[in-house]
Amino acid sequence: MNYKKLIVDSGLRMLNSGYTVGTWGNISVRDQEKNLVYLTPSGMDYSKIIEEDVVVCDLDGNTVEGTRKPTIETLLHLGVYKARPEVNAIVHTHPIYSTVFSCAGEDIPSVIDEAAQTLGGIVKTAPYALPGSQELADNCVRALGDKANACLLMSHGAVCLGETMEAAFKVSTVLEVTAQIYYMVRSMGKECIKISDENIAAMEYFVKNIYGQR
């Protein structure tokens, strides 16, 4: 697989999704065979990034290939990969509705079926820490735990995970749709009726073992 092309294409996809603007957010993918991580470069316009701009590093953060500075959130990406061996792609977005809840320091519960099937439980908001800091990386890893596929960074944005890049983008989309629905129900002066843990577990099993083509 051409991981550099995947990063370039994914940067354009994130920009065109409306989940970020300018140079905000960042993306990475892990090559499981070589245990290398491919990252977006720091502060570069996604519409102008080419394959030569992608930075490749090991899990200790040592640059293996590339001349650009990697994303400021490299510590966060590497921390997640170390903690979650099943994860091979991370998309850090700045979506509006999800970030609204992060600014309020609120978690987003599973209030729709798609969230129950995709997000891995409650999407927690990690305590605030400065961008690029080890503290932010540690807070993110704790908020994700060993199961969640997304978390919010207080007053900052969202971090979405997947076994593949496609899966990570699906998580980012479902998270923002869930946040918007949750926000709108709350705006009605109502409280969402949360899906039970039992039904969440049933839907997770359904998606992994029954739904779709095999």
Protein model, in words:
This is L-fuculose-phosphate aldolase. An 8-stranded mixed β-sheet has the order 4-3-2-1-5-8-7-6, sandwiched between helices. Helices cover 40% and strands 16% of the residues. The protein has one domain (3-209): 3-Layer(aba) Sandwich (L-fuculose-1-phosphate Aldolase), CATH 3.40.225.10. It is α+β, with helices and mostly antiparallel strands and 214 residues long. It contains 7 helices and 8 strands; from the N terminus they run αββββαβααβαββαα.
Keywords:
214 residues; Aldolase_II/adducin_N_sf; lyase; alpha+beta; L-fuculose-phosphate aldolase; metal-binding; L-fuculose-1-phosphate Aldolase; 16% strand; Aldolase_II/adducin_N
